[in-house]
Amino acid sequence: MDQIVIENLLKMGFTPTTYEGQDGVFYTKKIKASDVPYLAEKVVDDDVLFCDDLVTYCVCPDGEVQLVYGDQYEKGHMFSPEGQALLLDIGYPTYHLSVDGGTCQLA
């Protein structure tokens, strides 16, 4: 993962995390469901997912972005539109990703 991506994740409050049996560093952040615009608009229903429930964002060593809430999840590689949307939804800085070179540069 590109160093600028890691720096931005750390600035956003992501925590470097390792898991037994898993290679690499994962960057995780717990956030209230109501603070994630996609969830607040489409998922929070005060029946299964409440506004104050904590959800987990995880950026995996291979660049996959995961949003886990309850027994559901959304995911996409940070080079994909789905992965970019997940990060942008919580305020990740606007950036351009180069699929060819696997690099990330601030726009």
Describe the structure.
The structure is a single chain. The strands form two sheets. The chain has a five-stranded antiparallel beta sheet, with helices on one face. A two-stranded antiparallel ribbon has the order 6-7. It has helices at residues 3-11, 37-42, 81-88; strands at residues 15-17, 26-32, 54-59, 64-69, 72-77, 95-98, 103-106. The protein has one domain (3-106). The model has no long low-confidence stretch (mean pLDDT 85). The chain starts with a helix and ends with a strand. It has three helices and seven strands; from the N terminus they run H-E-E-H-E-E-E-H-E-E. The protein has 107 residues and is an alpha+beta fold. Strand 1 (15-17) and strand 2 form a beta hairpin.
Question: What's the layout of helices and strands?
Answer:
Layout: H1 3-11, E1 15-17, E2 26-32, H2 37-42, E3 54-59, E4 64-69, E5 72-77, H3 81-88, E6 95-98, E7 103-106
Antiparallel strand pairs: 1-2, 2-3, 3-4, 4-5, 6-7
